[in-house]
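We give the chain.
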Amino acid sequence: MSVPAIVLVAGEGSRLRPLTADRPKPMLPIAGRPALEWVVRWLRAHGICTLYFNLHYCPQAIMEHFGDGTAFGVQITYSYEPVLRGTAGGAAHFRPCLRGTTLVIYGDVLSDLDLQALLARHRAAGAAVTLALYRVPDPWTRGVVEQAPDGWITGFREKPAPATCPPTALVNAGIYALEPAVLDLVPADRPSDFGHDLFPLLLARGERLLGWEAEGYIHDYGTLAQYYQADADARAGRLRLF
């Protein structure tokens, strides 16, 4: 059975205004194509062809471009959120469709990492969730992941003080392999976030969360500076485009 992917694209992208005044963040152009199209091509290149998109802000822009996915060699199912459910809440909406290991991709992340390598590590370890991790020059501005020497995650620290955060700290890439049963813990009556809510709950319950340091390009484009950098990286070949 092929592995599906949930691509979280509901966010408004307010930090990217005025570029997102009339379109959602994932539809901003990167190297001449919508950023989300590069994500779809990357997934398809790794054999991931069953996709689920959650939508909220300017949903028609995404639906009109991608349709049912046939033109891009994939199958896309959409879910519209009148009120944002959070990252975990958005993913949990698709729980009835999921039968086995599933990828979750944040829609404002561009990457060329080997998704099959991530899936292989996840399955070999028998983890409930495997998080792709990467290094950045300023980890104290992100969500830092704490690990045991064997890679199992022991905790999370959101934007720790620089003095307490080594420059070699690993941060959450927003790319996960997970077993769908973990989504059963997401509450239906309020928004829920992976990093703030679900992952700490899983650790408290004794579930096994694994950190996997990814090789390759990973870049989130949540700010104007990050967006322009992503476009420059793609044009310069620092991001492998599929």
About this structure: Residues 5-236 form a domain with the Spore Coat Polysaccharide Biosynthesis Protein SpsA; Chain A fold (CATH 3.90.550.10). The longest helix spans residues 224-236.
